[in-house]
């Protein structure tokens, strides 16, 4: 099994810079390659312990100018997260009534 820790941590940094809190679901959605769940969880824990650590892979590949397609993908991810949160809040509110 290949170690994808650096790749996963790079995704975490990208998500954080775009204003999203990295989660297992967002990492899986953003990754171009299939990732084993235990590796995602491990790398996410490592990243959360020091989110400001420089990620060489991420710094080397990221550009300051995003294409419209990249922005669209990021916005779609944000909408998905918000829709899920809204659904959970709605269920919680209905259950309490």
TrEMBL record:
Parts forming coiled coils: 65-92
Keyword annotations of the record: Coiled coil
This protein's name: KfrA N-terminal DNA-binding domain-containing protein
């Amino acid at each position: 099994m290949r170690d994808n820790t650096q790749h996963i941590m790079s995704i975490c940094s990208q998500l954080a810079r775009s204003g999203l809190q990295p989660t297992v679901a967002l990492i899986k959605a953003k990754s171009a390659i299939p990732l084993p769940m235990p590796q995602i969880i491990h790398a996410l824990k490592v990243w959360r312990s020091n989110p400001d650590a420089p990620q060489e892979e991420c710094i080397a590949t990221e550009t300051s100018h995003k294409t419209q397609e990249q922005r669209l993908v990021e916005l779609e991810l944000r909408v998905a997260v918000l829709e899920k949160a809204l659904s959970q809040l709605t269920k919680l509110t209905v259950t309490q009534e």
